[in-house]
TrEMBL record:
Highest taxon of the lineage: Bacteria
Residue intervals of the DUF4440 domain: 9-114
Protein name: Nuclear transport factor 2 family protein
One Pfam family matching this protein: DUF4440
């Protein structure tokens, strides 16, 4: 089980590197064909729209971290709960932030892929004093 969790943690690190780089080729191999994301303000993006943010140049990250990750396995599916911290620009606007992320992963063809994710903005960075 620990080996499986490490495989999922490694997947998360590959995903974060691809997001930081805006690497649509790498992301394309990590996302399922029917990938769906719920964004920070409740908007929904399908796989094509998620990748288009990078291919259009609209989204650029100066930093992108995936931390505090907890893995829960359910057979050929898994839930990764973690914190995404980013310093980013989207269409010329600052979109820096810290987000609690729920990633929904599935094992298909012998490898893990990201089927969906949901972002919720965090007011205070984890580990910082709470108001």
């Amino acid at each position: 089980m620990e080996q499986d969790d490490e495989e999922l943690h490694a997947f998360g690190r590959r995903w974060a590197r691809a997001e930081l780089a805006g690497d649509t080729d790498a992301l394309g191999t990590l996302l399922t064909g029917d990938f769906t994301a719920v964004g920070r303000h409740g908007f929904v993006l399908d796989r094509a729209a998620w990748l288009a943010r990078y291919s259009s140049g609209a989204l650029v990250h100066d930093s992108f971290d995936w931390e505090y990750v907890e893995i829960r396995r359910y057979g050929c599916a898994a839930l990764a709960l973690g914190v995404q911290s980013q310093q980013s620009i989207y269409e010329g606007r600052d979109v820096d932030g810290h987000f609690r992320i729920s990633q929904f992963l599935t094992a298909a063809d012998g490898r893990w892929r990201l089927a969906g994710l949901h972002l919720s903005e965090i007011a205070v960075r984890p580990g910082a004093p709470q108001p």
